[in-house]
Amino acid sequence: MENSKQKAKTKKLEEIHERFLGAVVESYYGENGELVYILKQETDLEEYAGMIKTVLSSKVGLDLTQVVRVTNQDQSHYVNIAFFPNELENL
Q1: Residue 89 in contact with residue 61, Cβ under 8 Å?
Q2: How far apart, in whole angstroms, are the C-alpha atoms of residue 9 and residue 14?
Q3: Do 25 and 42 touch, CB atoms closer than 8 A?
Q4: What 3-state class would DSSP assign to 63?
């Protein structure tokens, strides 16, 4: 029973990740070491920031010392998400 719940959770996380990646135009590390995801222009940044936060948080425990930035193509708006430094090592 527990195994099927874990498989369902893993499948859901994979679906969320795939949907997020479908909106990604580019990703890189910024000047301050933050991971930056540039998304298609009309993407809802709050929604997609929540998606990547869910995906990354599932990999390792959450800490508020590392930043991931989600922005649109013209980079006029952005959402920052904070994580432990060791969370991003496992990506």
Answers
A1: no
A2: 9
A3: no
A4: coil
Range list of H helices, 1-91: 2-23, 45-59
Residue 65 CA to its chain's centroid (Å): 15
Distance, CA of 90 to CA of 73 (rounded, Å)? 26
∠ CA(67), CA(69), CA(72), 5° rounding?
Answer: 175
- Strand order through the sheet with 24-29: 24-29, 35-39, 66-72, 78-83
Instruction: List, for residues 30-58, the tens digit of each pLDDT value.
Output: 888 888 999 999 999 999 999 998 888 78
72 pLDDT band, cuts 50/70/90, is: very high
